[in-house]
C-alpha cells in the first residue's frame, strides 16, 4: 500500500532509461557507504555471535560470505527489477539473538532453523500478510518507529567527536562543507577529509592482509523442534518487526511504492538459498536504505536505484574478500565509521521525524501516539528477545486506539 502522492509514486516507478545512462557517482558512492556502514557495525554482531557460540574460523568466514553475497545479489536484482533502491541486508537483531542462543544447538540444527525461518518469511511475505498488517498502521506511527531506529546512530556522533576530536571532527566538518557547497557529495567529503586527517595524524594502523578469497562451507541442514522453537520463531519475529517493517517504512517515506510481496518474497528465497552456508536471515534494510534513498544519492528519485545496484555489487565484492575487509576495518580509528553512519543518516532521520509529526488523514491524537512509539523504540528494550521497534509500534497502536475519539464515517 502506497503512502505518498500519486505523482511521486509514478515518478518512482517510471521505467528506467538503462543502468548505463542512469549511473551517477553520487548514487554509486551511496551504495558503497551503505556497505561500509554495514561492515562497520552490523557485521560485528555476526562476529560476536560466532565467537560466543564457538564457531570455527572457517564457519565464521562462511557465515560472513553468505550474508554478504546473499544480500548483494538480492539488492542488485531487486533494484534493477523495480527501478527502486532496494536495500537488503542480514538481520541485525537476529544476529544479536544468536549471541545467546546459537551455542545451545548443533550448527546443522541451527542451519535447519534458518531454513525454516526463510520458508515462514517467504510464505508470510509473498502472501501479503506482513504488508497488509503494516499498511493498517497509521503513517506517523511507522515513521516514528523508523525515527527511533535511526536516532541512536546520529546521537553517537557527538560522543565520537569527543573520543576522537581530530579525525571525527574533520569528518563532521567535511560533511557540513559538503552540504553547503556540494550536497550530493557531502558523505564523500566527510569520508575523504576524515581519512586524510587520520593518515596525517598517523591514526591508520598498519595491518597484514590475506588476499585469498573467502571459501564458503556447505552445511547440510538438520531439523529439531528445540532449534525451531529457540531460533526460528524468535528470529522470524525480530526480523519482521526490527528490520522488514522499518525497511518498508523507509521506502514509503522516501516516496517509493514498494511492492512488499515481491521484496519480502525475494528476501525469503535468498534466506533459504544461503542458509546452508551459514546465513541466518536476510531482509529489507532500514538504516542503509536511508542512505540510498536520500536526495544526496541523486536528486532524481527515479535514478536512486543505482545506489541499490552499487550496494549489491560492493556487498558481493566485500563478501568474496570477507577476511580482508574485517582486517582492514580493524585499522580504522575509533568512532570514525560510527560518525560516518550518523551523518549519512541525518537526511533520512529528518524525513522520518517530519512524517511522524503530520497527522494527515488521522486524528491529531496520532501525534502523541507517534511520540510514544518513538520513546519506546529509542529505549532499546527487548523483553522476551523481541526488539524495541516491535514494542514501539505496539505501544503506538495501543495509545492511538485509546486516545482517538469517536468520529463520523471516513474518520481514521
UniProtKB/TrEMBL annotation:
<keyword id="KW-1133">Transmembrane helix</keyword>
<feature type="transmembrane region" description="Helical">
    <location>
        <begin position="182"/>
        <end position="202"/>
    </location>
</feature>
<keyword id="KW-0812">Transmembrane</keyword>
<feature type="transmembrane region" description="Helical">
    <location>
        <begin position="27"/>
        <end position="50"/>
    </location>
</feature>
<feature type="transmembrane region" description="Helical">
    <location>
        <begin position="335"/>
        <end position="353"/>
    </location>
</feature>
<feature type="transmembrane region" description="Helical">
    <location>
        <begin position="62"/>
        <end position="81"/>
    </location>
</feature>
<feature type="transmembrane region" description="Helical">
    <location>
        <begin position="262"/>
        <end position="293"/>
    </location>
</feature>
<feature type="transmembrane region" description="Helical">
    <location>
        <begin position="88"/>
        <end position="107"/>
    </location>
</feature>
<dbReference type="Pfam" id="PF03594">
    <property type="entry name" value="BenE"/>
</dbReference>
<keyword id="KW-0472">Membrane</keyword>
<feature type="transmembrane region" description="Helical">
    <location>
        <begin position="141"/>
        <end position="162"/>
    </location>
</feature>
<dbReference type="InterPro" id="IPR004711">
    <property type="entry name" value="Benzoate_Transporter"/>
</dbReference>
<feature type="transmembrane region" description="Helical">
    <location>
        <begin position="365"/>
        <end position="384"/>
    </location>
</feature>
<feature type="transmembrane region" description="Helical">
    <location>
        <begin position="305"/>
        <end position="329"/>
    </location>
</feature>
<feature type="transmembrane region" description="Helical">
    <location>
        <begin position="223"/>
        <end position="242"/>
    </location>
</feature>
<protein>
    <submittedName>
        <fullName>Benzoate/H(+) symporter BenE family transporter</fullName>
    </submittedName>
</protein>
<feature type="transmembrane region" description="Helical">
    <location>
        <begin position="113"/>
        <end position="134"/>
    </location>
</feature>
Amino acid at each position: 500500500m502506497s503512502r505518498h502522492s500519486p505523482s511521486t509514486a509514478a515518478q518512482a516507478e517510471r521505467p528506467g532509461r538503462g543502468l548505463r545512462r542512469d549511473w551517477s557517482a553520487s548514487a554509486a558512492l551511496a551504495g558503497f557507504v551503505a556497505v561500509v556502514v554495514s561492515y562497520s557495525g552490523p557485521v560485528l554482531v555476526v562476529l560476536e555471535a560466532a565467537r560466543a557460540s564457538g564457531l570455527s574460523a572457517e564457519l565464521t568466514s562462511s557465515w560472513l560470505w553468505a550474508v554478504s553475497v546473499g544480500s548483494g545479489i538480492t539488492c542488485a536484482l531487486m533494484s534493477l527489477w523495480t527501478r527502486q533502491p532496494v536495500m537488503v541486508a542480514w538481520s541485525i537483531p537476529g544476529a544479536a539473538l544468536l549471541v545467546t542462543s546459537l551455542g545451545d544447538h548443533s550448527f546443522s540444527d541451527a542451519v535447519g532453523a534458518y531454513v525454516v525461518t526463510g520458508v515462514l518469511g517467504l510464505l508470510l511475505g509473498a502472501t501479503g500478510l506482513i504488508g497488509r498488517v503494516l499498511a493498517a498502521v497509521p503513517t506517523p506511527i511507522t515513521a516514528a518507529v523508523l525515527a527511533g531506529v535511526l536516532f541512536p546512530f546520529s546521537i553517537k556522533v557527538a560522543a565520537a567527536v569527543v573520543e576522537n576530536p581530530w579525525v571525527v571532527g574533520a569528518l563532521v566538518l567535511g560533511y557540513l562543507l559538503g552540504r553547503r557547497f556540494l550536497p550530493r557529495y557531502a558523505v564523500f567529503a566527510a569520508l575523504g577529509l576524515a581519512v586524510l586527517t587520520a593518515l596525517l595524524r598517523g591514526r591508520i594502523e598498519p595491518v597484514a592482509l590475506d588476499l585469498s578469497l573467502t571459501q564458503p562451507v556447505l552445511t547440510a541442514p538438520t531439523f529439531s523442534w528445540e532449534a525451531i522453537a529457540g531460533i526460528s520463531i524468535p528470529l522470524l519475529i525480530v526480523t519482521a518487526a526490527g528490520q522488514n517493517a522499518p525497511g518498508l517504512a523507509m521506502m514509503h517515506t522516501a516516496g517509493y511504492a514498494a511492492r512488499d510481496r515481491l521484496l519480502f518474497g525475494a528476501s525469503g528465497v535468498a534466506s533459504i538459498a544461503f542458509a546452508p552456508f551459514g546465513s541466518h536471515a536476510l531482509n529489507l534494510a532500514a538504516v542503509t536504505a536511508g542512505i540510498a534513498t536520500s536526495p544526496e544519492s541523486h536528486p532524481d528519485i527515479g535514478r536512486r536505484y543505482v545506489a541499490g545496484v552499487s550496494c549489491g555489487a560492493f556487498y558481493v565484492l566485500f563478501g568474496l574478500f570477507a577476511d580482508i575487509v574485517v582486517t582492514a576495518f580493524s585499522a580504522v580509528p575509533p568512532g570514525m565509521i560510527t560518525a560516518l553512519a550518523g551523518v549519512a543518516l541525518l537526511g533520512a532521520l529528518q524525513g522520518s521525524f517530519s512524517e511522524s509529526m503530520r497527522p494527515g488523514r488521522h486524528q491529531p491524537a496520532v501525534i502523541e501516539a507517534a511520540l510514544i512509539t518513538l520513546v519506546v523504540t529509542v529505549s532499546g528494550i527487548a523483553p522476551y528477545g523481541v526488539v524495541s521497534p516491535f514494542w514501539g509500534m505496539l505501544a503506538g497502536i495501543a495509545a492511538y486506539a485509546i486516545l482517538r475519539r469517536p468520529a463520523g464515517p471516513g474518520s481514521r
